[in-house]
Amino acid sequence: MINSVLMLLIASALSSSALAKSCPEVLDSTQRKLNAVEQVNLCDEFQGKVLLVVNTASQCGFTGQFEQLEQLHKKYQDQGFAVVGFPSNDFNQDRGSEEKTAKVCYLDFGVTFPMMARSSIKGAKANPVFTEIARQSGVVPRWNFYKYVIDREGNVVGTFASSTSPVSQDITSVIENNL
Question: Which ranges carry the Thioredoxin domain (predicted)?
Protein backbone atom coordinates (compact mmCIF):
# COMPACT_ATOMS: atom_id res chain seq x y z
CA MET A 1 0.00 0.00 0.00
CA ILE A 2 2.77 2.46 0.94
CA ASN A 3 4.63 1.59 -2.27
CA SER A 4 1.49 2.29 -4.33
CA VAL A 5 1.00 5.67 -2.65
CA LEU A 6 4.68 6.50 -3.09
CA MET A 7 4.56 5.55 -6.78
CA LEU A 8 1.43 7.67 -7.25
CA LEU A 9 3.12 10.67 -5.60
CA ILE A 10 6.22 10.26 -7.75
CA ALA A 11 4.14 9.97 -10.93
CA SER A 12 2.15 13.04 -9.93
CA ALA A 13 5.30 15.04 -9.23
CA LEU A 14 6.84 14.04 -12.55
CA SER A 15 3.73 14.96 -14.53
CA SER A 16 3.48 18.31 -12.69
CA SER A 17 7.12 18.97 -13.47
CA ALA A 18 6.57 18.09 -17.12
CA LEU A 19 3.55 20.40 -17.31
CA ALA A 20 5.48 23.24 -15.68
CA LYS A 21 8.24 22.86 -18.25
CA SER A 22 6.01 22.69 -21.34
CA CYS A 23 6.69 25.53 -23.71
CA PRO A 24 3.97 28.09 -24.47
CA GLU A 25 2.98 28.00 -28.14
CA VAL A 26 4.16 31.59 -28.72
CA LEU A 27 7.70 30.62 -27.67
CA ASP A 28 7.83 27.19 -29.29
CA SER A 29 10.40 27.95 -31.99
CA THR A 30 14.06 28.55 -32.61
CA GLN A 31 14.96 31.84 -34.26
CA ARG A 32 18.14 33.14 -35.79
CA LYS A 33 19.50 36.38 -34.32
CA LEU A 34 19.67 39.47 -36.53
CA ASN A 35 22.65 39.46 -38.90
CA ALA A 36 24.14 36.40 -37.20
CA VAL A 37 24.31 32.64 -37.48
CA GLU A 38 23.52 32.20 -33.77
CA GLN A 39 20.18 30.53 -33.06
CA VAL A 40 17.96 31.25 -30.05
CA ASN A 41 15.51 28.74 -28.63
CA LEU A 42 12.79 31.15 -27.52
CA CYS A 43 11.51 28.77 -24.85
CA ASP A 44 14.94 28.37 -23.26
CA GLU A 45 15.59 32.10 -23.42
CA PHE A 46 12.23 33.65 -22.52
CA GLN A 47 9.95 31.12 -20.82
CA GLY A 48 8.57 32.59 -17.59
CA LYS A 49 9.34 36.18 -18.60
CA VAL A 50 7.03 39.03 -19.49
CA LEU A 51 7.77 40.10 -23.06
CA LEU A 52 7.10 43.04 -25.30
CA VAL A 53 7.23 41.62 -28.83
CA VAL A 54 7.58 44.24 -31.57
CA ASN A 55 7.72 44.01 -35.35
CA THR A 56 10.31 46.57 -36.41
CA ALA A 57 11.58 48.24 -39.57
CA SER A 58 14.79 50.19 -39.96
CA GLN A 59 13.44 52.76 -42.44
CA CYS A 60 10.08 53.62 -40.91
CA GLY A 61 8.80 56.86 -39.40
CA PHE A 62 8.46 54.95 -36.11
CA THR A 63 12.08 53.70 -36.11
CA GLY A 64 12.90 56.28 -33.43
CA GLN A 65 10.87 54.10 -31.04
CA PHE A 66 13.97 51.92 -30.71
CA GLU A 67 15.20 54.42 -28.09
CA GLN A 68 12.04 54.00 -25.97
CA LEU A 69 12.03 50.23 -26.43
CA GLU A 70 15.61 50.19 -25.13
CA GLN A 71 14.56 52.33 -22.12
CA LEU A 72 11.79 49.83 -21.30
CA HIS A 73 14.12 46.89 -21.68
CA LYS A 74 16.71 48.39 -19.32
CA LYS A 75 14.11 49.53 -16.79
CA TYR A 76 12.43 46.14 -16.32
CA GLN A 77 14.96 43.50 -17.43
CA ASP A 78 16.01 42.69 -13.87
CA GLN A 79 12.37 41.91 -13.04
CA GLY A 80 11.98 39.14 -15.62
CA PHE A 81 11.10 41.29 -18.64
CA ALA A 82 12.48 41.54 -22.16
CA VAL A 83 11.75 43.41 -25.34
CA VAL A 84 12.16 41.17 -28.39
CA GLY A 85 12.35 42.73 -31.85
CA PHE A 86 11.40 41.06 -35.11
CA PRO A 87 12.49 43.08 -38.15
CA SER A 88 10.21 42.71 -41.14
CA ASN A 89 9.97 44.12 -44.63
CA ASP A 90 6.26 43.29 -44.94
CA PHE A 91 5.51 47.01 -45.26
CA ASN A 92 8.54 47.73 -47.50
CA GLN A 93 10.40 49.75 -44.88
CA ASP A 94 13.23 47.38 -43.96
CA ARG A 95 14.86 47.11 -47.36
CA GLY A 96 18.46 46.19 -47.97
CA SER A 97 20.59 43.71 -46.12
CA GLU A 98 20.24 42.41 -42.58
CA GLU A 99 23.62 44.01 -42.02
CA LYS A 100 22.07 47.41 -42.72
CA THR A 101 19.15 46.66 -40.38
CA ALA A 102 21.60 45.57 -37.67
CA LYS A 103 23.56 48.81 -38.10
CA VAL A 104 20.42 50.88 -37.53
CA CYS A 105 19.45 48.85 -34.46
CA TYR A 106 22.78 48.30 -32.78
CA LEU A 107 24.92 51.27 -33.85
CA ASP A 108 22.45 54.06 -34.57
CA PHE A 109 20.06 53.34 -31.68
CA GLY A 110 22.22 51.32 -29.26
CA VAL A 111 19.75 48.44 -29.00
CA THR A 112 20.82 45.77 -26.50
CA PHE A 113 17.57 43.81 -26.38
CA PRO A 114 17.30 40.66 -28.53
CA MET A 115 16.66 41.23 -32.21
CA MET A 116 15.73 38.24 -34.33
CA ALA A 117 16.47 37.78 -38.03
CA ARG A 118 14.23 39.50 -40.54
CA SER A 119 11.04 37.56 -41.19
CA SER A 120 7.50 37.98 -42.36
CA ILE A 121 5.03 38.88 -39.62
CA LYS A 122 1.76 38.36 -41.50
CA GLY A 123 0.30 36.08 -44.12
CA ALA A 124 1.07 32.51 -45.08
CA LYS A 125 4.82 32.86 -44.45
CA ALA A 126 4.48 34.60 -41.09
CA ASN A 127 6.97 33.89 -38.34
CA PRO A 128 5.39 31.32 -35.95
CA VAL A 129 5.59 33.84 -33.10
CA PHE A 130 3.33 36.24 -34.99
CA THR A 131 1.06 33.45 -36.18
CA GLU A 132 0.41 32.53 -32.54
CA ILE A 133 0.08 36.17 -31.46
CA ALA A 134 -2.54 36.71 -34.18
CA ARG A 135 -4.36 33.52 -33.17
CA GLN A 136 -4.52 34.56 -29.53
CA SER A 137 -5.25 38.26 -29.95
CA GLY A 138 -7.01 38.46 -33.30
CA VAL A 139 -4.67 41.37 -34.10
CA VAL A 140 -2.30 41.18 -37.07
CA PRO A 141 0.17 44.05 -37.38
CA ARG A 142 -1.19 46.69 -39.73
CA TRP A 143 2.13 48.53 -39.80
CA ASN A 144 5.62 48.48 -38.31
CA PHE A 145 6.15 48.77 -34.56
CA TYR A 146 3.00 46.98 -33.45
CA LYS A 147 3.56 45.95 -29.85
CA TYR A 148 2.31 42.87 -27.99
CA VAL A 149 2.71 42.20 -24.27
CA ILE A 150 3.07 38.48 -23.50
CA ASP A 151 2.62 37.34 -19.88
CA ARG A 152 4.79 34.79 -18.06
CA GLU A 153 2.53 31.94 -19.21
CA GLY A 154 2.80 32.87 -22.90
CA ASN A 155 -0.56 34.64 -23.25
CA VAL A 156 -1.03 37.84 -25.21
CA VAL A 157 -2.34 40.32 -22.62
CA GLY A 158 -1.98 43.58 -24.53
CA THR A 159 -1.86 44.78 -28.12
CA PHE A 160 -0.80 48.27 -29.13
CA ALA A 161 -0.70 50.05 -32.48
CA SER A 162 2.39 51.62 -34.00
CA SER A 163 1.46 55.09 -32.80
CA THR A 164 1.45 54.02 -29.13
CA SER A 165 4.69 55.07 -27.50
CA PRO A 166 6.55 52.13 -25.93
CA VAL A 167 6.88 54.13 -22.70
CA SER A 168 3.23 55.16 -22.60
CA GLN A 169 1.21 54.56 -19.44
CA ASP A 170 -0.98 52.15 -21.44
CA ILE A 171 1.94 49.82 -22.15
CA THR A 172 3.90 50.25 -18.94
CA SER A 173 0.84 49.54 -16.77
CA VAL A 174 0.23 46.24 -18.59
CA ILE A 175 3.89 45.31 -18.20
CA GLU A 176 3.96 46.22 -14.51
CA ASN A 177 0.70 44.35 -13.81
CA ASN A 178 2.27 41.20 -15.23
CA LEU A 179 5.70 41.38 -13.60
Answer: 12-179
Tell me, yes or no, whether 135 lies in a domain.
yes
- Note whether residue 10 is domain-resident: no
70: CATH: 3.40.30.10
138 inside domain: yes
30 three-state secondary structure: strand
- Measured distance CA(118)–CA(131) in Å, rounded: 15
Distance in angstroms (rounded) separating the CA atoms of residues 139 and 169: 21
User: How far is the CA of 137 from the CAs of 25, 141, 174, in angstroms?
Assistant: 13, 11, 15
The rounded distance, in Å, linking the Cα atoms of 20 and 15 is 9
Residue 160 lies in a domain: yes
Q: Domain tally for the chain?
A: 1
Residue 66 is part of which domain span? 23-178
pTM of the model: 0.87
Instruction: Point out the residues that are catalytic.
Output: 60
